[in-house]
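2024-03-11 09:14:02 INFO queue: dequeued item Putative symporter YjmB, len=282
2024-03-11 09:14:02 INFO validating residues
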Amino acid sequence: MSLETGRIKPWKIYAYGTALFGFGIMMAMNTTYYSFFLTDVAMIPAAIAASILFICRIGDMILVPIVSGLMEKINLRWGKYRSWLLIAPPITAVSFTLMFTNLNVSTSVKIVFLVTAYLIAHAFVNFEFAALYALLPMMGKHPADRTLISARRVQFSSAAQIIFGYIAMPIILFFTGGNAKAPGLQGFFITTAIFSTIMLITFWFVFYISKEFDMPSASIATANKPKGLTVGEMLEQAFKNPPFIALIVGDTCRGISTFAVSGTAAYYFRYVVQDSQYFPYS
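2024-03-11 09:14:37 INFO prediction written
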């Protein structure tokens, strides 16, 4: 904290934002290239690849409330939420990188492996992302600090998307080798490993600088608070809140359109333009 009571040091606000940058640049590999990887690198038929993605996204949706419930019940030695910034990122980094592998096994075994890697990766993505957001009000106790942290969160997330768009495909093609015009297995694997490592470093950095905000003693005190609303009560209140429903519908439509465009861009440059080197200029 700075000398002004209750205010966070400005550099720590920027440090918090770096985790959103690392997270965004890693997750963009999934939203932009994973369907292309399944069909054109792992050589899984399109219909089966679509089924894999559907199963994985449903599984991810189911995991979200489970992860949230576990986080509220578990108290670890490094803080209630901060602990997950230490534990989850290395597991996420390894399993996320394994999503971009193409084992020399039967298609059925390959599918089981990729689905398992996806679900493990996204289970721990939920742990680390929820923990990062839970730290926001703990770090920003002053309204001005919360505003600044929220602004930096958006800025760093946007920066991740912009930078990813320019550098991801050139890096993939570079590691694919041989002046490749189409991305290959080695390029995807190494690029994902690099971006996952960036995520790991930035989350561990936030873990390091946030010790004063989420002390183990405070976590224990939080755990002893009276129970809040049940899941049923929360759902009941949510579905009786028209502005909240409108927000969910609007954000869902935005997500669908964004993922549709980003997910098909790799195919466009591969089969229409016939040169993925032009992808960064789209």
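2024-03-11 09:14:37 INFO annotate: The chain has one domain: 10-281.
2024-03-11 09:14:38 INFO item closed
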